[in-house]
């Protein structure tokens, strides 16, 4: 494929101004929504082959959220594209002030392997809604889903409007060398840094959705059963291969026994007595990641789980006890079904540890005490927070989702995706009926009295 030609064709398509037509954007998103509904079995089969996802998990975490993004965008896009009036200061009287959203142009979306359908199509919906053209680069680690994404885009769009560029690392490298008007990347920190540096050469704006070690702080001011249930669900969803999965639990020693009992109960309820045989337990994406996770389990105090299935690349939901900050499990994001327990005594200790490391993408606090919530929200920096739950904030269209510092740049979801792929232009529209003389040279003392009266 000639990526440079595809890119130039999209530039030409964008220059026709066709994408400025809101009805064209709406029709495209409607086609995407209808295609997904008509091909749900194909999407589910692809996700099962690539990640071992059950049909239920595929719908709940990928297909359903993508459909919801389509529905929400179609419902609101006509409001989003309207100019928005803002207040005009008194010294600008006989003027009108407003903002207008303008598309960037040709955009690049690089999606990851862990949620390969959702994280390719949701940003695409947003950039199309904003009036852009787009090239989508899905992950080569999930070839079956990549093929489905390509089929969807090829069916629903003119190639000048949207195109799917399948392939490996060489395709990504070629794409980031092209002068896109915006780059949206979801993936690891190392690749994110490389894309950021490349984008800086042409001053291309970026959104980087990365990751990090997202903590869950468990306090004694919460029913332990519901806390354990929600932590187990959020951690072992997609076999822990979720950028916002709880990466470790900060827990008091006195609470461990109760937590372990409930955790064991809910692991069995969710995945059965033999989790490696459960259709609800996804597989690890490839042998390299499987071996990395398996090595992390060496010489650990395993309380629950630890079993592995090399043939099917599965690791049972695992909880590890007495993990200190020098443990290999605490060196980088785990991105797998291993949950370390880290002890703390006072909430201030938990805050100190979190703040002494890279800012996490998500933070989870389990407490019904407003003191704890206020303390964490005031003193810790993180992408997003969920109080008394895990991962569910990602599925809330009215909240922006994104990281800060090492966990990412920018945010999206709902209207925020539309805004991410738009430049918000400011317009001051002045009347010619009156022209105030005091702003013009020479700035005499009398004129300065007027200026100081307005600007103070």
How would you characterize the overall build of this protein?
Strands 10-13-14-9-8-15-16 form a seven-stranded mixed beta sheet, with helices on both faces. A six-stranded mixed beta sheet has the order 5-4-3-6-7-17, with helices on both faces. Helix 2 crosses helix 6. The radius of gyration is 25 Å and the shape is globular. The protein has two domains: 226 residues, Aldehyde Dehydrogenase, Chain A, domain 1 (3-Layer(aba) Sandwich); 183 residues, Aldehyde Dehydrogenase, Chain A, domain 2, CATH 3.40.309.10. The N and C termini lie far apart (60 Å). With 456 residues, it is α/β, with parallel strands linked by helices. The model has no long low-confidence stretch (mean pLDDT 96). The protein is built from 15 helices and 18 strands. 42% of the residues are buried. Helix 9 links the parallel strand 8 and strand 9.
Features of the shown structure:
Aldehyde Dehydrogenase, Chain A, domain 1, 6-stranded mixed sheet, globular, 2 domains, 7-stranded mixed sheet, Aldehyde Dehydrogenase, Chain A, domain 2, alpha/beta
Q: Return the domain count.
A: 2
Counting helices, strands and paired strands, the structural category is alpha/beta
From the spread of the alpha carbons, the general shape counts as: globular
Distance between the termini: 60 Å
Q: Which value, in Å, is the CA radius of gyration? A: 25 Å
* CATH fold call of the largest domain: Aldehyde Dehydrogenase, Chain A, domain 1
CATH C-level of the largest domain: Alpha Beta
Order of strands in the sheet with most strands: 10-13-14-9-8-15-16
What's the architecture of the largest domain in CATH terms?
3-Layer(aba) Sandwich
Number of strands: 18
Residue runs with pLDDT of under 50 for 5 or more positions: none
Assembly state of the chains shown = single chain
Mean pLDDT: 96
Q: Percent range for helical residues?
A: 40-55%
Domain Aldehyde dehydrogenase: 3-427
Protein name: Aldehyde dehydrogenase
Keywords: Oxidoreductase
InterPro entries: Ald_DH/histidinol_DH, Ald_DH_C, Ald_DH_CS_CYS, Ald_DH_CS_GLU, Ald_DH_N, Aldehyde_DH_dom, Aldehyde_DH_NAD(P)
């Amino acid at each position: 494929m000639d990526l440079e030609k595809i890119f130039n064709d999209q530039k030409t398509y964008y220059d026709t101004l066709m994408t400025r037509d809101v009805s064209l954007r709406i029709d495209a998103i409607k086609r995407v929504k209808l295609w997904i509904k008509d091909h749900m079995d194909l999407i589910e089969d692809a996700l099962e082959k690539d990640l071992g996802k059950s049909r239920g998990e595929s719908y709940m975490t990928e297909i359903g959220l993508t459909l919801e993004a389509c529905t929400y965008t179609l419902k609101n896009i006509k409001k989003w594209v309207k100019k928005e009036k803002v207040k005009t200061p008194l010294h600008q009287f006989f003027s009108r002030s407003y903002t207008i959203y303008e598309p960037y142009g040709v955009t690049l979306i690089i999606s990851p392997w862990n949620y390969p359908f959702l994280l390719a199509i949701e940003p695409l919906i947003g950039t199309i809604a904003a009036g852009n053209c787009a090239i989508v680069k899905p992950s080569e680690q999930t070839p079956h889903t990549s093929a489905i994404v390509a089929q969807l885009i090829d069916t629903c769009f003119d190639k000048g409007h949207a195109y799917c560029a399948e392939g490996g690392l060489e395709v990504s490298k070629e794409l980031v060398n092209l002068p896109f008007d915006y780059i949206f990347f979801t993936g690891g920190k190392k690749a994110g840094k490389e894309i950021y540096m490349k984008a800086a050469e042409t001053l291309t704006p970026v959104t980087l959705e990365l990751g990090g070690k997202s903590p869950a702080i468990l306090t004694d001011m919460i029913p332990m059963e519901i806390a354990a249930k929600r932590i187990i669900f959020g951690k072992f969803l997609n076999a822990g291969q979720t950028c916002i999965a709880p990466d470790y639990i900060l827990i008091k020693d006195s609470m461990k026994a109760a937590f372990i009992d409930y955790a064991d109960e809910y692991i069995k309820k969710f995945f059965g007595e033999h989790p490696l045989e459960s259709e609800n337990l996804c597989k690890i994406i490839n042998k390299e990641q499987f071996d990395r996770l398996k090595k992390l389990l060496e010489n650990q105090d395993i309380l629950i789980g630890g079993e592995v299935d090399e043939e099917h690349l599965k690791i049972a939901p695992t909880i590890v006890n007495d993990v200190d900050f020098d443990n290999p499990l605490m060196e980088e994001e785990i991105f797998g079904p291993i949950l370390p327990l880290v002890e703390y005594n006072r909430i201030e200790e938990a805050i100190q540890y979190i703040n002494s490391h890279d800012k996490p993408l998500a933070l989870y606090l389990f407490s019904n005490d407003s003191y704890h919530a206020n303390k964490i929200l005031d003193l810790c920096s993180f992408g997003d927070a969920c109080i008394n739950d895990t991962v569910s904030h990602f599925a809330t269209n009215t909240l922006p989702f994104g990281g800060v510092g090492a966990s990412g740049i920018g945010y999206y979801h709902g209207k925020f995706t539309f805004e991410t792929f738009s430049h918000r232009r400011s317009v001051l529209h002045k009347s010619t009926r009156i022209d105030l003389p005091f702003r013009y040279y020479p700035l005499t003392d009398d004129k300065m009295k007027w200026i100081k009266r307005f600007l103070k």
